[in-house]
Amino acid sequence: MKRSSSPSRSAETDAPAFQMQPFGLRHLLGIEGLSAAEINHLLDRADAMVGISRQVEKKRPTLSGRTLINLFFENSTRTQSSFEIAGKRLGMDVINMAVQTSSVKKGETLLDTAVTLNAMQPDLLVVRHNAAGAAELLSQKMGCSVINAGDGAHEHPTQALLDALTIRRTKGQIEGLTVAICGDIAHSRVARSNIHLLNTLGARVRVVAPSTLLPGQIEDLGVTAYRRMEDGLPGCDVVMMLRLQSERMSGAFVPSPREYYRYFGLNAERVALAKPDAIVMHPGPMNRGVEIASTIADGVQSVIAEQVEMGVAVRMAVMEALQMPQPASPDETGAA
Amino acid sequence: MKRSINTKPPRQRLFVNARIIDPSQSLDIQGDVLVSKGKIEALGKSLPRDQLKPFCKIIDCGGAVLAPGLVDARVFIGEPGGEHRETIKSASRAAVSGGVTSLAMMPDTSPVIDDAALVAFIRQTAREKSRVNILPTAALSKGLMGEEMTEFGLLSDAGAVAFTDGSKTVQSAQMMRRALTYAGDFDALIMAATRDATLGGGVMNAGLNATRMGLPGIPREAEIIPLERDMRLVAMTKGRYHASTLSTSDAADVIARAKDRALDVSAGVAIANLALNENDIGSYRTFFRVSPPLRNEDDRLAMVDGIRTGKIDLICSNHNPQDVDTKRLPFAEAADGAVGLESLLAASLRLYHTDDVPLMRILECLSTSPAKRLGLNCGTLAVGAPADMVLFDPDAPWILQEKDLRSRSRNTAFEGARFQGRVLKTIVNGRTVFSREN
User: Fold this and answer.
1) B169: helix, coil or strand?
2) CB atoms within 10 A of CB B431
3) Taking the domains of chain B in order of start, what are their residue ranges?
4) What is the mean pLDDT of the segment spanning B344-355?
5) CA distance to partner chain A, nearest, from residue B81 (Å)
6) How many H-runs (helices) and E-runs (strands) does chain A carry?
7) Do the chains contact at A216 and B211, CB–CB below 8 Å?
8) Which residues in chain A have their CB less than 8 angstroms from residue B332's CB?
9) 3-state secondary structure of A17
10) How many angstroms separate the CA atoms of B65 and B305, rounded?
């Protein structure tokens, strides 16, 4: 296991960075449609970024002078901070738009906001919105690169990438692993992005949830669905838990939090069903005692803190890839 | 102040060299149509010309198809209250270029058309501003709230052609039962949307696409359940019922079974559900967000089959103009609806060009059948009928471009679509109200 802090590149990416194929996309709106080569490109670049955040001097000013706007229509301290830190470590000027208090409340539409922001000439726009397709819509109106930081129940691509990086650094590779995604699949953009990514990289994906939280024809996305943790967890290398919104636990989709925890909460007995070296993941924030027991969240198999760390590296890599298709060679940047 | 438009019918017109197709008489001949004082006076192979009045104008149709003008049973117009989306005048402008000579206007306006005075207002405005026959429908329930019946008698007398809650489905079975029962006393037609409000609360067809896109789905059952309920109520009340827009194969079967039991029911299908499927939504294109939603290809084919076999009676445009403020939004937040008056005929002709439905049957579903169901004397070229006609070249190719639309709104689901079949002239009451240049 490559859990130890190795600033060097991981085993399977032995080609030097400057020989990579250039990254060809202008926006990162979702994982669906990305090729394995494109995903690996981003993961390889992210892997090389991990070391930067572990140095005392945390700057890699490849994007200095450029402007990043964080446009969050939903509150998310964690994701917003992660993007902010990533942008600052690349030397960018980062602006956080406080949308809750801005003109959107006064009836301005998403596209009016886009036109306004576009006139400020940003280089990157990170957007989170409660409506599926919002990032795509914005990308059509913006002159800059758009990164989707979560659009409704559609996609959250950087979350899937950081999950994949965490898995890859822990397990060495993704191909051939069995990954169980457990919880509110129906409303989860994290689940969708992960399903696309893990399938593209050759993992076997299971989803485990009560039927009310499984969307229609989910198996056609290339997953196997289970209605019991006891059926879905055996043999898994990765157990990925999802957050269940509290408003969905009060009768609409499941009757109560305690019933949910009884049948779908991750406790020690259930973790023991997976492989002995299985890792436990959660995109946060966690409902301790609802979907995951505290002992598991803080236990030895948990890589939840690593996920947060990888989040910064992945977001740095994505921003740099969108702005600089060809990675800079290590001696130019002084990194790693 | 502009003068109101001239609606006085010309005294005599002879349309020659036409391929006359009249579904009401199962007629498909090369010949001439003589129109006098706004009515069909004669039609047949080379009508004698020696008795024509000296002022009679002769119009050479150049071999194009002359058929009854289209009767559109479901059109939303913004007037009153939403004139930025569509006015009666702009709807009329769109209709004539699409060959539509009569249209039933839905009562979803602001204020809602649930009062005889408003029906009179629509008719008056239409007389002044519209070149086509605009037939107001009235709300089934006051304010479209689904709770209290409107004045069916007074509204019928004022000229309402049917009763409907427009885009809303009557949720209460008791309300629907009473409406069907009471409407029977006035021989009034109830037109109903069939989409359960809670089960159908999503934004697109339920299934893999919705799952993939992270959008809440509308299951097919959301249409089938209210429709089956309504069939039971029709059987119970013996009312006259028209299901406005079906989208699923099972719903078509429900209607077919009800017809087998001799219930007075009929059904329509929106052109979008005949010509498009959910894959057309692509990446969250809101112009393809319509109600009923675009379904999968199997359901689309079932709708085509329904038209061919007669399970479904008519094709409507479901014309629903929406502005940028309701459409340039994320898919889940956008309004339902697409404009359709101008593409209704051309899009329907796709079914003819693909050999799925004979031309005669398509024209029947666009004119004769809706006219009959709405109790109108148009939709036919029978002698004595109003001379409401469309002249079109069934093979002429063209590409729909948003900038050419005459509707005040631009939300077409057919932007850039390649069509075969184009309206050349539209004739209302014997008067040519639209003539395509070049």
Assistant:
1) coil
2) 19
3) 12-66+387-435, 69-373
4) 98
5) 20
6) 12, 9
7) yes
8) 131-133, 152
9) helix
10) 24
pLDDT confidence tier of residue B348, bands split at 50, 70 and 90: very high
The C-alpha atoms of residue B233 and residue A275 are separated, in whole angstroms, by 58
Confirm or reject CATH 3.40.50.300 for domain B69-373, answering yes or no.
no
User: From CA A52, how far away is CA A47, in angstroms rounded?
Assistant: 10
Say if B329 is an interface residue toward chain A (CB within 8 Å). yes
The model's pTM is 0.91
Query: What span, in angstroms and rounded, lies between the C-alpha atoms of A204 and A200?
Result: 10
- Touching check for B206 and chain A: CB below 8 Å? yes
The amino acid at residue B186 is F
Inter-chain residue contact B283 with A136, CB threshold 8 Å: yes
Alpha carbon of residue B121 to chain centroid? 21
Query: Is B211–A152 a contact, with Cβ atoms under 8 angstroms apart?
Result: no
Q: Which of B419, B414, B415, B370 is nearest to B393 (CA)?
A: B419
* % of chain B exceeding 90 in pLDDT: 93
From the number of C-beta atoms within 10 Å of its C-beta (0-12, 13-18, 19+), residue B411 rates as: buried
- β-bridge partners, B403: none
Query: What CATH superfamily classification does B12-66+387-435 receive?
Result: Urease, subunit C, domain 1 (2.30.40.10)
Report the pLDDT value the prediction gives residue A109, as an integer from 0 to 100: 77
Nearby residues of B286 by Cβ (< 8 Å), 6 or more positions away: B327, B328, B329, B331, B334, B411
Is the CB of residue B402 less than 8 Å away from at least one CB of chain A? no
Whole-number Å distance between alpha carbons of A253 and A244 = 10
Tokens of B336: 């339902």
Q: What is the pLDDT of residues B214-269, one digit of tens each?
A: 999 999 999 999 999 999 999 999 999 999 999 999 999 999 999 999 999 999 99
User: Is the predicted ipTM greater than 0.85, yes or no?
Assistant: yes
Give the distance from residue A74's alpha carbon to the nearest chain B alpha carbon, in angstroms.
15
Mean pLDDT of A260-265: 94
**H or E element at residue B224:** helix B221-237
* Cα–Cα distance for residue pair B206/B213, rounded to 1 Å: 11
| Calpha distance A163→A307 (Å, rounded) | 6
Which of A8, A77, A79, A96 shows the shortest CA–CA distance to A44? A8
Nearest residue in chain B measured CA to CA from A189: B214
Alpha-carbon dihedral sign for residues B167, B168, B173, B178 = negative
> A215, B328: Cβ pair inside 8 Å?
no
Could you say which of B212, B217, B284 has the minimum Cβ distance to residue A136?
B284
Tokens of A213: 């939280």
